[in-house]
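=== RUN LOG ===
request id: a7f3
mode: sequence -> structure
chains: 1
length: 283
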Amino acid sequence: MKRLVSSVALLLIASGCAGPPARSSAAARHEAAIEANRRGEAYVRRGELENAARSYREALRLSQSLEDPDGIAANAVNLSIVRQRQGRFAEARSSLDAVLEQPQLRFAPSRLAEASLRHALVDLDEGRFGPAGTWLARSSEYCAGRCALSAAIHNTGAQLALKAGRADEAAAAARAAHDAARAAGDRSELANALRLLGISSLHRGDAAAARTHLEQALALDRELGAPRKIALDLLALGRAAALAGEPGAARAYYARALAVSEAARDGTGAAEARAMLDAAAGK
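=== RESULT ===
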């Protein structure tokens, strides 16, 4: 009898019944992709953009190995954002190819709208306004008029209109973004819309209206803890002060924007703030 019990025990151990089942390779890869994405987010918060890019690239690779459309789209967009912040625009665009140039995979319209909008924003930042408009139109088509990205699409349209010197068109797009953001409870895009309304007012020479919108944007961005946007609000408020004939107040706003950008390790924002400080000082 003892020999029989021992034989049964050995058989159970050999067949794997003596312990918990091992995780599947797919589950392990999925968890690894999630963890790489979390590391990327942590690096972004610390301003370690190259480490963030490395983590997002690994998360993207793991998602591609599983043909996980949502994971691919999320990590491609995250990687694009980091590369754009680094000024590496070609890489910011190419990362989106994982979504936009993969017809064999089925992505949800919302993911295609997001990737197309991101492409438009990269082109806009690089000054490629024609391609930016093309990608923005494509994003709007995927969005089909009403989706979670409606406010962001309108805000991007406002930015393009401002670049073309069409302040009234920009204001109309920003108002549409404002209404869409309020309806969706999207405070981030609401702040963007308010900032763009303020900048549109600057283009029309209305310093008082600009200040009203920009102060509201600044209050929201502080609540959201968005240093880059806080700096943008402060720079625009400096321009409003200069337009109102208050050079001292303008320099104070620029100095605050510089301090915020330096604390956030935002080299691009700091350079912009320094340039405006120098211009205000007549350097």
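=== NOTES ===
Confidence is low (pLDDT under 50) at residues 1-22.
The chain is about 80% helix and 0% strand.
=== END ===
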